[in-house]
Amino acid sequence: MGLGNCVDAALAYARRGWAPIVVPRGQKSPKRRGGQKQRLTEDDIPKHFGGSAKNVGVLLGEPSGGLVDVDLDTPEAVLLAPYFLPKTGARFGRPSNPNSHWLYQCDSPPRTERYADPLGGTMLVELRSDGCQTIFPPSVHPSGEQVAWEQYGEPASCDGSELRRRVGMLGAAALLVCQYPAAGSRDGYCMGLIGYLLKGGMQAAYVEALITAVVTVADDEEVATRVDKVQRAVSRLGEGKPLAGLSKLRDVMGDEQSRTLSEALRRWLGLSQGVSDLSDPLDIPVQPFPTDTLPAVFREFVAGYSRALGVPPEYVALPLLTCAGAAMGRMWRLSLKNTWQETAQLFTAVVAPPGSAKSPALRHACYPLTQLQKDADERFEGELEGYKAKVDEWETAKAEGHTGQKEKPVKPRREHFYTVDVTVEALGPIVQGSSGVAVIRDELVGWIKSCDAYRGGLGGDRQFWMSVWSGWPIRVNRKTSEQISVDRAVIGVTGGIQPDMLYELADQRGRLDGFVERILFIFPDPVVSLWTDDDVEQDAIDAVVDVFRLLRDPPCEVKADLALSEYVTVTLSPKARQCWKDWFNDNQVRTSEADGISRGWYAKLPNHCARLAVILHAAHHPHGTEHILSLDTMEAAIQLAEYFRSHAHRALSVFEKHRGSGATSLGTRVLKILGRANGGWVRRSDIHKSLGGSRPVTDVLTATLKKLEDRGVIKHQRTTTDGRPLEEWRLIQQNSSL
User: Tens digit of pLDDT for each residue in 620-634?
Assistant: First the structure.
């Protein structure tokens, strides 16, 4: 082929429309600055490649007319490539890793992506395009091996997005082979994997192709048995039966490894982020709580109770942060700009099954606030005794006709820090006399059931709570007294709720009214709370109580500074502002790409993030003397926001499943109807009839059928009967072709 030396090779590559560059012999990349910007003509090549021996690099992507290199970095990836990559006439490698570079020509090259094993760190596959270069034959690899062509023909033409999808499957397959378990655990591994992929929206044909490749390359002796599980899983979905998924992978791999593996698969394969109407919520991966984001005094408190109660740390951290925000009340605010300020109120929910110790965790987490309430009650009782004595003196003086008597003493007002009464009638006077209040409910369903309790469900309490969260002034009209007005009521809400009761928080008419989107959920994997002798040091508890006291009642010198303002106003440092701006813009893009209830929740995440930021800042600086929020605090708040995003995926999936269709999702109900036909065709009109009294409108059913068809779970056909057009659907068997 005339490619025995680098000059001839570089000339040949240039004549093919590729962009060769000079790379030092035995190295993989140009060392001099601007090396990748080099563009050589045929006349330039002899001069640049002459003299001492050199390697030939080729710029990928746009400089070489859309040339893309799929770099197979492991033996497993090389073995798997024929299962997923299109055939191509241009491949090369080196003796220890032959056939490891497959070249393609793309009109619209995909972006460069790298697929590394998140559990072991090994690079598996690279999709190399714009911004990359690869050393081509006859270069010498840093190992001393010479790079050589396996086939020096034409790179296959390929659509960029399709190549990206196939390389993603190849990377996923290589990862799954690397993590393939020993005999005895393989059945559970494959069952969990199949369920996770199907529930994530992957077409059954692709799942079958992936499983076939993985079990074959992993030298599993039961290939046919493993692959057959795909069809059995599809059938179970069609019958509406439970299907193993991430929970099964956890049994095989453990919590941390299964979570990491599933997150990589979700990204590489483009799986649903968790609002599939066919998913078990616990199959949706969630992040562990980032305890290190908390200020040290909170961190010690949370870790201590987590160990002592045998519960996840977020069971304690979430209500603690909510109560801290209530203690801060109207005193603190974060000013993002003149037109956007946030106070510290949060609506939060711990989603956990009965017997998970969420109630003891809630009680202990709220202790600092209840201690402040105890202090306030004692002060009030003392002030009340003094008030009664003054009233007696005033009435005696008035009865004796003393002139110049002062006005009747004003009755002291009890300061409130928390309440369990959530009716608007009761909250009015509580909020009027307090800077901030927490509503603490062991079961949050009671919060919703109390809405409009005295108005036959026709009042506006639900709207009242949404307005409170948004910072609107509140007006409470009471029959027995004058109207109560509060310009900015800071009311935090926290409590627990069982997964089966979660949908009770939704609007009864199935509307997306924005209420659920205002709640920060945690929905961790269930744990067994075993006995432990661990306990919490009293010093750790007292330290948090002291911080809470300062948050509500700053030192006198701070109060003097606030003479003209009721706020400790916190602003962002320049670095914190840039960090916020970058994250905010990224979230806006993600919001525009989301739909349904997730879109609304994403849209409110910046508000949550800003509120978390000011709570963290205040806990770091409770004396109120530091008014600049640091980069570290903003990064911690963003990390918490992303943690809550992952848990929202799990919680919101419950609402998506139930919204508009009672206790069972529309997709699942349709699959049950088709499953009863035992593979036969079912008319659209019969599906409508079988849905019974809760039949959806035509457009909703059409969208659901289309979604299931796109997944490869059902098949659609049009036919005629007596000259009338008919539409029919049935469950289908899948093949394993890509």
Answer: 999 988 999 999 999
